[in-house]
Specification:
The chain has about 160 residues and is mostly beta strands. About 10% of the residues lie in helices and about 40% in strands.
Length: about 160
């Protein structure tokens, strides 16, 4: 079987869509579109996310500063365009995206369904993405809707 044939069914694994955000110590706000996020523990409450280490804000996340996972709802999606293709370093879209900064320093996107505020715990690198394990320190529900579900064409690309 070809790689594409092997990966066909992997694309059927459903995931959500998320905007992962971090604000550096000097105030630089960064965010990126993510689809690989999952709860991995009840006690303590932990989530895992797969991250390409080249993503904006990744070094801030690894530094231990608070970061957020903004859950995309099925109805409010216009802000996704700001994160879909990425942006040059230092030129984030937060001037155009409805958001606020929490007391902990997490970026809360007000058009998202909800926001999960996290703190880095550990990571491992099993392949081309790094798996970040983070503890949930706060959560915010912004809207009453369903999460957006994402399916890929195959397991070889986003």
């Amino acid at each position: 079987m070809s790689d594409k044939e092997i990966a066909a069914a992997v694309g059927h694994i459903p995931s959500g869509l998320f905007i992962v955000c971090a604000q550096s110590e000097d105030g630089q706000k960064d965010g990126y579109l993510a689809s690989w996020v999952q709860q991995v523990s009840f006690k303590p409450l932990l989530v895992a996310l797969a991250v390409n280490p080249d993503r904006p804000g990744y070094e801030t996340i690894k530094s231990g500063r608070p970061f957020t996972i903004n859950v995309v709802g099925e109805n409010e999606t216009a802000y996704l365009r700001h994160f879909w293709k990425g942006y040059p370093p230092g030129q984030g879209p937060f001037g155009e995206v409805n958001h606020e900064v929490s007391e902990n320093g997490g970026i809360l996107m007000k058009d998202a369904l909800s926001t999960i505020e996290c703190k880095f715990k550990e990571s491992l690198k099993p392949g081309d993405h790094e798996i970040v394990i983070a503890e949930v320190v706060q959560s915010y529900v912004h809207h009453d809707a369903k999460s957006k579900v994402h399916l890929r064409k195959n397991g070889l690309d986003y």
